[in-house]
Amino acid sequence: MPRRIVILGAGTGGTMMANRLRRRYEPSEASIAVVDRDDRHVYQPGLLFVPFGLAQTDEIVRSRRRQLRNGIDFHETEVEQVVLEDDVVRLADGTVLAYDVLVVATGAVLRPEETEGLTGPGWNERVFTFYDVPGAEQLARALDDFDGGRLVVNLVDMPIKCPVAPLEFSFLADWYLTERGVRDKVEMTYVTPLDAAFTRPVASQHLGGILEEKGIQLVTEFATGEVDGSQGRLVSWDEREIPFDLLVTVPVHEGAPYVTRSEGLGDALAFVPTDPGTLQSLARPNVFVLGDATDVPASKAGSVTHFEGEALTENIDRFLAGEELSATFDGHANCFIETGFGKALLIDFNYETEPLPGRFPNALGPLPLLKESRLNHLGKLMFQWMYWHTLLPGRSIPGIPDAMPTSGKELQRETV
Ligand SMILES: Cc1cc2nc3c(=O)[nH]c(=O)nc-3n(C[C@H](O)[C@H](O)[C@H](O)COP(=O)(O)OP(=O)(O)OC[C@H]3O[C@@H](n4cnc5c(N)ncnc54)[C@H](O)[C@@H]3O)c2cc1C
Fold first, then answer.
1. b/e per residue, 348-386, with b = 16+ CB within 10 A?
2. For a designed S-S bond to 78, which of 92, 105, 384, 409 qualifies (C-beta 3.0 to 4.6 A apart)?
3. In this structure, are 15 and 138 located in the same domain?
4. What pTM, to 2 d.p., does this model score?
């Protein structure tokens, strides 16, 4: 009897794992079923470019089915519940899928309704998010009409997908408004609950410096309590107020709601407690997790999801063979950060090592770390091709190891 592998979610992680596992096992060894609610796979990093007219949404959306290798069963329906005790998943179309191994890859969802007033008056009129397709499209129209005033970029709370994306948005907005000749009529402010521009000290220093150079005011430790869209006010829990004419916000993120309906699977925010090295869930030995759905202390990023893939494939193999799992995932993350005017920065880090200056992927590598360059910008643009043709098919990126390379990094600069 083939072993039954069920994968929940056909986004970055689910698609990649299905393809990796299909290559690893003959159909006589394992059946692979994947579940997602629709057939629209969004290349999410591309959402950053939509508000500035640098990408159209039809260029960043493809059929999910068509990203899956032959021999993978795709169920286009909602996951209702995982019943851990019975090793089954209940789907909205009435199907019950039994599994020997379950892979949870249902990512994170936006919860704007969790913040008082955010989806009230002004939502999608002067208050926007670019974190989903409709939001990015509506923001494109609003930015096109924006000729001056107070532009505030805000992240409500961590964790969020791609923690650098709101910074990139700010840098690109500075470029876009300059190109349109209205930058000097716009007061820009970046508002974060963190105590600096980013989560890690050395990168925060660099990114905070870029905000300053571009004349973008940085407001830290701002715990957003309320958004008043009719008056244009962002209000913190400690009653500080920031006025805006246009607010671009990143709402609170949580895990998928079915996780809460699945007894024993998730935590209070519907993320799935996961061993950070093996990617096995803490709920059951035959349940594995990757990508944004986990609670591991790595960035919620497509690059992290990709680097998790090899360790997870290996561990599913070991689990099915009755062998001990190996704790090989090191938290490796790698992100290009657009800084506008055709340049970008690159950061590369893991659980232990924060983003540091140097070269990538090694001491002689062509890409500078934590330094703006044209080559990094071209790397960011090329990433979309890599996503569809290398990441999703579940292949390694040539020359880029799954574990974080230490060669090329100025490790003596580390402060933590
Ligand atoms: C604006 C933006 C910019 C970004 N930029 C970058 C970047 O530059 N670099 C980078 O590395 N990462 C970036 N990311 C993050 C990256 O896109 C995610 O980290 C990555 O997609 C995570 O993969 P995943 O498989 O965990 O989740 P996803 O790719 O989101 O897939 C989850 C899937 O689960 C499905 N699903 C959820 N619940 C259910 C249910 N109940 N029933 C059926 N299906 C369900 C969803 O439909 C979805 O297809 C960005 C994200 C955003 C929003």
1. bbbeebbbbbbbbbeeebebbbbebbeebbebbeebbeb
2. 92
3. no
4. 0.97
**Ligand 1 atom index nearest CA of 9:** 34
Residue 263 sits in the same domain as residue 337? no
Q: Are residues 153 and 279 in the same domain?
A: no
Q: pLDDT tens, 313-352?
A: 999 999 999 999 999 999 999 999 999 999 999 999 999 9
Ligand 1 centre and the CA of 64: distance in Å?
Answer: 13
Number of separate domains in the chain: 3
Token output for 264: 């024993």
Q: Looking at ligand 1, which residue's alpha carbon is closest to its atom 5?
A: 45
Same domain for 344 and 394, yes or no, is yes
Residue 370 in contact with ligand 1 by CB distance below 6 A: no
The model's pLDDT over 93-121, given as tens digits with 9 standing for 90+, comes to: 999 999 999 999 999 999 999 999 999 99
What is the span of the domain harbouring residue 380? Answer: 333-413
Clarify whether residues 224 and 184 are in a common domain.
Answer: yes
Cβ of residue 311 lying under 6 Å from some atom of ligand 1: no
Residue 121 and residue 209 in one domain? yes
Query: Ligand 1 within 6 A of 104 CB?
Result: no
Evaluate: CB of 13 within 6 angstroms of ligand 1. yes
Last residue of a domain, one of 209, 228, 252: 252
Q: How many CB atoms lie within 10 A of CB 153?
A: 22
Report which protein residue has its CA nearest ligand 1's atom 20.
302
- Closest residue CA from atom 4 of ligand 1: 45
Joined tokens for residue 359: 């070269």
How far apart, in Å, are the Cα atoms of 353 and each of 59, 330, 370, 411? Answer: 35, 10, 14, 8
> Which ligand 1 atom is nearest residue 80's CA?
41
pLDDT tens digits, one per residue of 277-291: 999 999 999 999 999
Asked if residue 375 is part of any domain, the answer here is yes
- Pick the residue whose CA is nearest to atom 28 on ligand 1: 11
Q: Is 312 in the pocket of ligand 1 (CB under 6 A)?
A: no
